[in-house]
Design a protein that fits this description.
This protein has 57 residues and is mainly beta. Helices cover 12% and strands 39% of the residues. Pathway: Porphyrin-containing compound metabolism; protoporphyrin-IX biosynthesis; protoporphyrinogen-IX from coproporphyrinogen-III (O2 route): step 1/1.
């Protein structure tokens, strides 16, 4: 979490994770499964519409 001193700069919180599973034991040679999870939150003290649009691009 980032908490800037400038009130015009938003607070930013993020966490990202990487998950990976082994191949099933009953299916040797099958590919592993993997994916990314997590997310990002932007919490402005002062909302500017153009910043909101830019963040969600």
């Amino acid at each position: 979490v980032l908490h800037p001193k400038n009130p015009f700069a938003p607070t930013l919180h993020f966490n990202y994770r990487y998950f990976e599973t082994d191949a099933p034991k009953d299916a040797p040679g099958a590919p592993r499964s993997w994916w990314f999870g997590g997310g990002t939150d932007l919490t402005p003290a002062y909302v500017f519409e153009e910043d909101v649009k830019h963040f969600h691009m």
